[in-house]
Fold this protein.
Amino acid sequence: MLGAGVRFNDGRVDRRGRFWSGTMVEGEQSDASGVFVLRRRHRRGDVPGRAASAFRTACATAPTESGCIFADSPTRTIFEYQLLEPEGTLGPRRVFAQTPEGAFPDGAAVDADGCVWSAHWGAGFIVRYTPDGRIDRTLRVPTCQPSCVCFAGPDLDVLCITSAREGLDAATLHAEPHAGDVFLYHAGVQGLPESEYRL
């Protein structure tokens, strides 16, 4: 199913209970990565089906009202795909946002306003994009490698941000003692409940 050196990266369940996951190629720049989906009608032991190709590193989906957001980190591009129902296949895509030099879009989540919160690996901030891809606000975090976001708490108003220590040199780790930690912020907005996948 996957080529040599390709591994699953991260994933998320959409609003109809399908599990989407991106892949990446270890140790090289390659367009061999893609997006896979495991639908609820699959039986235990079934393998996910490829839904999209030609990514370098495909990051987890953030399900929107009518589609899915995927990031291709090395090309600093966030794509939005139309989601064709009832089959749940990916339709046409558009460039949702292009990130600046040194800011590699990673994991993302969608809030109750339909805005996308994207972790920007390498740049040390989280960006909230409006549904049409405009930057609404930027949240600085105390490490250069935030990796993913989600909403938690009784009211889903706590933004949880994961980060990584991988690849940081000693000087950076000294300057960023909280690299690898999970950060919690009151975002001032509510997230959406995460859907569950069941076989």
Observations:
- The chain has one helix and 15 strands.
